[in-house]
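Lab notebook, bench 4. Still working through the backlog of constructs that have no structural model yet. Next entry is a single chain of 180 residues. Request: give me the structure tokens for it.
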Amino acid sequence: MPRSVPPGELPGWVTGEIEKLGERPVDLVGHSLGGLVALRVAAARPELVRKLILIAPPGIQPRRSAIAYGPPLVASLLRARPRFLVRVATDAARAGPRNLLRGGAYVAATDARSEAARVQTPTLLVWGEHDRMTPSTIGQEWLEALPDARLHVIPGASHVPMVETPRELVAVIGAFRCEA
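Model written out:
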């Protein structure tokens, strides 16, 4: 992904990348901000997305500012393993503070309910039980907003189940993708 794409332009960028693939529709997976981006792609271009998997997406409960994510982020990092902290620090350095703040502001200002209502694609919502960034209780609001969705909460996981509980996440996504 190009570093300079502002968050609001990411759905268009993802759409362009899917179109370049030539094989459509695709199963689209997005985590956190990427989940919000994936939702927007599925809402705007349903013919491109066969199945939608959203892992801890924000955007159903707007926050006043990106700063509102600070305390949950700190609480999550305090519970993280050292190897994961190294990964987070590396990713944060690669993104840079400006992009991190732009992403947080974008998410904080978003209410994606109207877009969620337009998504006809079968959708799997996945949350970590102990997610503090986007609490798993928000999953119920997403279920109500999306016409064809189901929710899976992974016990013991937090905001990044692909690192914390990768086997369970792969199994849940694999089973969903194989359904007719």
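Notes after review: The chain has a mean pLDDT of 85. The chain has nine helices and four strands. Flag for follow-up if needed.
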